[in-house]
Design brief:
Helix content: 40-55%
Mean pLDDT: 96
Number of domains: 1
Distance between the termini: 34 Å
Structural class: alpha/beta
CATH superfamily: Alpha/Beta hydrolase fold, catalytic domain
Strand order of the largest sheet: 1-2-4-3-5-6-7-8
Shape: globular
CATH topology: Rossmann fold
Number of helices: 10
Length: 305
């Protein structure tokens, strides 16, 4: 059974803060896009992140791109992490905390791109830009893994597909936390789960998706990675809770990837909400340990370091 925090406290917090308000109606989503485009939120890391992690920033093709490195100077490989937020919300403190923990506990460089958001950014632009970051950091650091949550999970998996198709690159591991996978959102099981999801909803998400897909069809793998042929992708680590409308598509991804011969480490937790590995709960902490262990193994980092 889920802990009290996951079962009661987190859903109650989401309801109390009306976390689903921008997703609940198309009108609310349109208003949110207007607000965020006029008054963008800050994206820089929290002042107090981790004392054992160093943070630098540079501009790459016009994007601010942060690099987190261990202050010890001992770093193996790289992880490029794309944050979630419905393609419209800026990176949050929980994303920065996860990136810093990966950096410190894996002993790797974590690259965090501040990619352009709706209504300015599109899937075509951002997926290509993240792919370029992976290739550039591969030349610099060697092995590179991808990770992302929610909308960032879509970007991460779409990027992995693009790297395979256009550059012949097979990544050693891609970590997906409650990823958005089929932006057509036609899976009928989503409506069944909707009744228990305190966060996401389809009406507002469709508005964000229409901006995000730009000129691409919803079936394009750069928009909906579940539509891609998954053969030849590197290993996946996938997390999702059952109180998340994205869980039906996550199950389809796991089935499709395994049928294509892809190694999948799947973690579905009963009763947990969207992006549960980012929550301050026992289940969230356990998931973060799994993420760190999987990336250590993928980057062949010495566990005694």
């Amino acid at each position: 059974m889920p802990s009290f925090l996951s079962r009661v406290a987190v859903p109650a917090f989401l309801r109390a803060t009306r976390a689903n308000r921008v997703f609940s109606t198309a009108e609310a989503a349109i208003d949110h896009i207007r607000e965020r485009s006029l008054r963008p939120l800050p994206y820089h890391p929290p002042r107090h992140l981790r004392s054992d992690v160093s943070v630098t920033v540079e501009r790459v093709h016009g994007w601010p791109v942060y690099s987190l490195t261990p202050r010890s100077g001992r770093s193996t490989g790289c992880v490029v992490y794309t944050h979630g937020g419905g393609w419209v919300n800026e990176i949050a403190p929980q994303h920065w905390a996860l990136a810093a923990d990966i950096c410190a506990h894996v002993g790797t460089t974590v690259v965090v791109p501040i990619y352009p958001l709706v209504p300015f950014g599109t899937a075509e632009q951002v997926v290509a830009g993240v792919a370029e970051l992976v290739l550039a950091n591969s030349s610099r650091y060697g092995e590179v893994c991808l990770g992302g949550d929610s909308a960032g999970g879509q970007i991460a998996l779409s990027t992995a597909v693009l790297l395979r198709d256009e550059h012949g690159v097979r990544l050693p591991r891609t970590v997906l936390i409650s990823p958005s996978l089929d932006l057509a959102m036609t899976n009928p099981e989503m409506d069944v789960v909707q009744a228990v999801d305190p966060w996401l909803a389809k009406p507002g998400a469709r508005v964000f998706i229409e901006h995000w897909r730009g000129r691409l069809p919803l079936s394009d793998p750069r928009v909906s990675p579940l539509c891609a042929d998954l053969t030849g992708l590197g290993p996946l680590t996938v997390f999702c809770g059952t109180r998340d409308i994205l869980v039906p598509d996550t199950r389809l991804l796991v089935q499709k990837a395994r049928a294509a011969g892809v190694e999948v480490d799947h973690h579905e937790r009963d009763g947990l909400v969207h992006v549960y590995p980012l929550t301050p709960t026992p289940e969230g902490r356990a998931a973060r340990r799994t993420i760190i262990e999987s990336l250590r193994a993928a980057l062949a980092v010495d566990a005694t370091r």
